[in-house]
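Ligand-bound model needed. magnesium ion.
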Amino acid sequence: MENNSPSPVPKVGVAVFLLEGRTVLLGRRRSSTSIGHNTFGLPGGHLEFGESFEECAAREVKEETGLDIEKIEFLTVTNNVFSEEPKPVHIVIIFMRAVLPDPHQFPQNIEPDKCDGWDWYEWNSDNLPKPLFGALGKMVQGGFDPFPSD
Ligand code: IPR
Ligand code: MG
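Prediction:
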């Protein structure tokens, strides 16, 4: 029998704003086993035992898109309780940013069971796809800017 009771402890996720010009990489999530089904989210996933945030960011982006990244930097952290999900979960999400060493690399959809495909979107509320993954939507509403100020 399926267990729909909440996970007893919070998890840690790492999500990556992969920046190219004024755009970010987003994909529509397919989440039969995870959260945010049909919402557009950043590449990322769960922190593994012993990993640094930077290592997790690089691993998850590679696993999900085939892309190598560099200049990986911490941006912010959010505390997220997904109580309305089929399997409620509490995830602390570490948001990182990074860029491509080779801007001519194209993202591949390496995990089609988890994502419909990746594309680049301008980071403003008019041009972003909808619906956004919950935590990301709140950041847009709050005016969060993942781009460096210089
Ligand atoms: P996986 O590890 O399957 O990529 O998990 P995810 O994409 O559901 O990630 C969960 C944490 C996210 C929201 C940063
Ligand atoms: Mg993921």
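The chain has one domain: 11-141.
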